What we know:
- Helix content is about 80%, strand content about 0%.
- It is an all-alpha fold.
- It has two domains: about 5-155, Up-down Bundle (Ferritin), CATH 1.20.1260.10; about 170-315, no CATH class.
Amino acid sequence: MQFSDLNESQILALAITAEEEDGRIYRDFSQEYRKNFPATGQLFDRMADEESRHRHRLIELFRKKFGEHIPLVRRQDVKGFMVPRAPMLLHTLRPEKAREQAALMELDARRFYEAAAQKCKDAAIRQLLGDLAQEEQRHEMVAQRINEKQAAEGEVSIEQGVGRRLFVLRIVQPALAGLMDGSVSTLAPLFAAAFATSNTAETFKVGLAASVGAGISMGFAEALSDDGKLSGRGTPWLRGGVCGLMTALGGLGHTIPFMVHDFHLAMTIAMVIVVVELSIISLIRWRYMDTAFLSAAFQVVVGGLLVFLAGWFIGAS
């Protein structure tokens, strides 16, 4: 359906549906952030209240002009409109990203009301839509002033600290656990197969099986270990997916070189990649876990070296 094809009743119905959807999204934002990010939760409560007032004014005018039945016209039914993200995905956004999403929603709403006001000929409808366009513009400025006030009072910086801690708990920790497991635990079977067979194709199959198997195992282990409700570690299946993916990638990194037919070249590349993987792990621990880089590197390298020696000993025996 094209916007130009809509009549005045359909335009009002679309506006009502849009306000309902936006208000619901802002309430979801508020519910999600209220506990850990109270300033952001308060902002979205205010925005949701404004959307509710807009909806009431639109419904009141629709009743006067067209009766009690409001047809269902949604933004996704009309070409050219930005459709907000699905509510089930919104909880994965950090507060600053949620604010950006809300700003885009307000901008899109203002543009819609401006275009709709120009299209409508009924004076009362045109006046209301024009007023709502101006109010949406004021919302953008009010939200900006609230953001600036909260930043000046230190609330935003506090939220940023909380957001960083939650990011570490929900993403970095499971990713790091997976990367360490995938990079280290697969060394023994991979290099045992390499030294035992000197066959790159067979070694690749062993490494691929070990990496995929470890990824599936670690993914389920992380997802089932904690539902996140008490610990605040977030959605278990998101953590499990991150952990499983990074586990598989950690093993595949030094497995892929064995697609090369030259055994010695493949072995050299794989060992270089192992050093890179261990360095990345050390950097992540230093960056997010407040671990001294040299201490982190020593711990990771010693662990990797012991696993590598185990694989070499078993494969060469």
